Amino acid sequence: MQTAYGALKRSFEKVGDHWEKKGAKGPSDTQSARGGSGSRRQYRSAGGVDANASKGHLYDVAKRLDIAGRSRMSKEQLVRAIQKANKRASAKAS
What we know:
Elements: H1 2-11, E1 12-15, E2 18-21, H2 30-33, H3 55-64, H4 75-93
């Protein structure tokens, strides 16, 4: 299951309660870039958020998700806020 999820995150990113195709294929977070679940050291997964995307892209996603305070957030804060908004949207859709 983790391998399939890792493959999904290379081509798609989670936005709200659905997945959207990324502009370019590639690892979405440190966990994916450094060896995934089979490696000895585990890294934080961004939960489907493309943490390697530019801050501008993350800001645009946050804007679509109507995240308050997004203009004052750092890149890391945007990733965490998008993760939280995605979890809320997925729970609401269930």
